[in-house]
Amino acid sequence: MEKVSIGTNATICPMPITLIGSIVNNLPNFMTVAFISRVNMAPPLISMALNKGSATRGAVLETRTFSVNFPTADMVEKADYCGIVSAKKIDKSGLFEVFYGSLPKAPMIRECPLSFECNVVETHDFKTHTCFIGEIVATHLDKSCLTDGKPDPEKINPLVLTMPDNRYWTLGKPVGSAWSAGKALIAK
Known about the structure:
Number of strands: 14
Helix content: 10-25%
Strand content: 35-45%
Structural class: mainly beta
């Protein structure tokens, strides 16, 4: 296959769209973040990168807690809105029905089928962003999103992002089973 250069704004696609919950000006706030990934199994760690100019970054640095909420594809307008308006100018606290778990400074969104509560364990500053490593201390999933007792991605219906086209997508159909699909090559 012939390869072509597409510049440096490409990402591994797709990236999950998340709404990061924090407390800004004593109110629940949510910011759209796609720069996020699981980085460790035990303890369960997740990384996210927040722009240094965002109110959410300051809030997470102050409280050392945050939530990660996974909106559905049906929530695309609200999810996009949370990324294009700043808590420095706009109060987003009434946009969603908010709930709390064990971390009082990590508001979560009831409309999102999946939410994590996280404590910050490390930070790393880069030129434009701060990378936060958070330990997942609790996971909240809508019961309706389970199939055979496990989270069902089709029922969760997550919103994902591709770059550099900057478009939102949904997931497609599964194509194989992890730690199983490659076993056919072992015998060869």
